Amino acid sequence: MEAVILAAGYATRLRPLTADYPKPLLPVGGIVILDRLLDRLDPIPALRAATVVTNHRFIEHFRLWHRDRAAAHRLPVRLLDDGTVDNADRLGAVGDLNLALRQIAPDEDIFAMAADNLPRFELGELVACLERHGESCIATYREPDPDLRRRTAVLEFDAGLRVIRFAEKPANPDGIWVCPPFYAYHRAVRPLVQTYLDRGENPDAPGHLVQWLHRQVPVRALPVEHGAWDIGSLDTYHEVDRAFGGTGRVEAGDLPYRWPSPV
Questions:
Q1: Angle formed by the axes of helices 92-101 and 190-198, nearest 10°
Q2: Domain containing 179 — which CATH number?
Q3: Which residues pair with 54 in a beta bridge?
Q4: DSSP 33-60
Q5: Shortest CA distance to 128 belongs to which of 239, 191, 47?
Q6: Model confidence, pTM
């Protein structure tokens, strides 16, 4: 199994902090988000490597990080430039996932994840779910706040934990189970990602793929107690920074992998 970390967004809601800086390299409690994600992936025995998909605008920031930090992780880390330069021409999360799949051997399962959420559950549980059942698995937890449910994916599953309904960021969520952006995909579904894009389906949020995919092949839900910290705005970023022991007052001068590199 290989991990794909989707890090090619332009973080427009965190500007001006991210006007010239990628969100996955923002520090949270003094450690950048990407390092924290890899720290959670490193202990999973089934994982053999990680691909970080970014964009052309921010690739040099990630190369600075790779020079300084990649060797600190168990997993070999590959950087992949998707060639885009601004939010208007982005490939979207599903487009970036498909790009990464072309670089990974076809017999590998895939652990796909957004690079702007920090998990509050053990990611190895999702991998174990896939290995145990031979089906793609997604995490789910109860979210009582309807406002928060509108900002994520809402799902329903049957008595056997198979997903039977899935809606990405619904305007009127009528369920309480939601899905954070961490997905253990069985290798058999990989060709379907290209089919999804060829059909003209929504390439943006990764949950749109699951919304379509569960109607094609079985997708299993894994209930967990907690979901993830979603870093979707400046306010939530500073809240998460404080939750991890930071000051909650990170400014541009505090960012460690600026490009051109500060003298």
A1: 130
A2: 3.90.550.10
A3: 81
A4: HHHHHHHHHTT-TT--EEEEEE-TTTHH
A5: 47
A6: 0.95
Tokens coding 203: 């390439």
Number of domains in the chain: 1
Q: Look up residue 144 and give its amino acid.
A: P
183 φ, ψ to 5°?
-140, 125
Q: Is 23 left (phi over 0), alpha (psi -120 to 50) or beta?
A: alpha
CA atoms within 13 A on the CB side of 11: 31
Handedness of CA 102, 105, 108, 111 (dihedral sign): negative
Q: Is residue 29 included in any domain, yes or no?
A: yes
- Does 252 fall in a domain? no
Q: How far apart are CA 111 and CA 246, in angstroms?
A: 29
Distance of CA 99 to the CA centre of its chain: 15
254 found inside a domain: no
Which domain does 72 fall in, by range?
A: 2-244
Amino acid (1-letter code) at residue 212: W
pLDDT in tens, 155-202: 999 999 999 999 999 999 989 999 999 999 999 999 999 999 999 999
Find all residues with CB under 8 Å of 47, minimum gap 6, and list them.
Answer: 1, 2, 3, 41, 75, 111, 127
Q: Give the pLDDT confidence of 199-239 residue by residue, as tens digits.
A: 999 999 899 999 999 999 999 999 999 999 999 999 999 99
- The reply to whether 262 falls in a domain is no
CA distance 52 to 208: 20
Sign of the torsion angle spanned by Cα atoms 9, 15, 20, 25: negative
Residue 261 pLDDT: 57
